Amino acid sequence: MKPLTLLATLLILVASAGVSARGASESALEGHAGLVPQGSIDEAVFRRWRALGIQPAKPCSDEVFLRRAYLDVIGTLPTPKEVRDFLGDKALSKRRALIERLFAREEFADYWAMKWGDLLRVKAEFPINLWPNAAQAYHRWIRTSIKDNLPYDRFARELLTASGSNFRVGPVNFWRAVQSREPQALARAVALTFMGERADKWPKARLDAFALLFSQVGYKKTLEWKEEIVFFDTVKAAKDAAAGALKAAAFPDGTPAQLSPDRDPREAFADWLLAPKNPWFARNIVNRVWSWLLGRGIIHEPDDIRPDNPPTNPELLAILEKELVEARYDLKHIMRLILNSATYQLSSIPGSRHPEAEANFAHYPIRRLDAEVLIDALNQITGTTEEYSSPIPEPFTFIPEDRRSIALPDGSITSAFLEMFGRPPRDTGLETERSNDPSPAQRLHLLNSSHVHYKIERSPVLQPLFAASGAGLRGSATELYLRILSRFPTEAELAIVEAYGRSEETKGPKAMADLAWALINSTEFLCRH
């Protein structure tokens, strides 16, 4: 067999995630345990499957769960040691224990601050114009809130009612991270963020009545360059009240707001929104968290909640809402329930071709890694770093070379790789701003660019593995699989690697370098599965 054919065969095996090598019943994706519900979430999902006649996927293997949990919870690949330790652990509770360890990692706060940064539009420059000091204060508050597990109702209230300096009070930047400061624009941002609704689709009268709640948000500059104070404008409130301009103010459900000129209307809205029986608040966030972990919302899209876009499983959504309220809005509690569920731990190999299988979470959806996660993974594998740039001059946006992309505090700090691979511009807060759809340009970059080539060829971590030959090929190949795919290679895969390494054309370092290149270009590496 020619070397090129050998390498092509290897890529096919890798892309199928070991299914061809092990057989469908013993694939690298599927485990051997039976499918058993782990709680009320699974019971609701399983009932829906039975009602629709959907055959679900099998449970995923330990290798898949490990990699999936690392990527979904902390946006980071496990190290070879972490893979070995987890796979060697015989405890029945090791998956639950892993989830708790991941919650405690610093990367958990980094990754989820990145996710929230997309929604909350954390970006210094056009069209948001926060300015770096403010963007960093905003990001710092978000990350600290996540690290401290601030209850979500308090998180929302602090954002909604914040006043003060954009440089010193992080959450006030919610009111500045908008493309327009007109009350209608503020209302649209609030509805999208906290209700999952696109208020631009509302009747004009409904939006205008809601927007009056934000018509007293004031802004004033200070003597410090780019500093701005966000405040409740009591002077305007008194004038509007005297003119009767606030009488039409109403909450999104149509209830009159009955505003007082001596109380910030944002506080009145927060009271309405955070009431335990409010139908929007808990529903929106549990649906978002489900979507972030499982690739699609129970209501899909997760930021397009409306009466004519019903949930695929109303019972499941109601269970999650109830759990959040009873847990005093602890989002980690919701994540813990989802991550420990049999539904989340399904294989990505569909068990059914039923047209509603995907919408009812009958298998884990294969999704390309986020741009930030992908470049961080490449840097972790190769022991290299990335260069970032910003239209804003240093020192305001200086980023150390070892800073991971998931930890970047400002959406205006970027790189050519992040732009190419679909990092969101953070202009609107819509989920659709992020694109994880593969493109020809992305494929060519991974296959042929000097950027990726140099990372592999000059890697201080991989160079010792590239030097392997003869009997050492198996050990080096195993390390590459553990480092890149977070699993051990199959015997069939090792046989292909050894044959490739013995070929006259690929003897020496080239064989292992080609293997690293092949694995990095595989679907198994590039995607969550």
Task: List the main descriptive attributes of the protein structure presented here.
529 residues; 5 strands; globular; two-stranded antiparallel ribbon; single chain; disordered N terminus; 25 helices; mainly alpha; 3-stranded antiparallel beta sheet
Give a structural overview.
By secondary structure, the chain is mainly alpha-helical. Among the domains are: 120-273, no CATH class; 442-528. 49% of the residues lie in helices and 3% in strands. The chain contains 25 helices and five strands. The chain has helices at 3-15, 19-22, 40-52, 62-74, 80-88, 94-103, 106-120, 132-147, 152-161, 183-195, 204-211, 234-242, 265-273, 281-294, 314-326, 331-339, 371-382, 416-420, 440-448, 450-457, 463-466, 472-484, 491-502, 509-520, 523-526, and strands at 164-165, 217-221, 228-232, 367-368, 527-528.
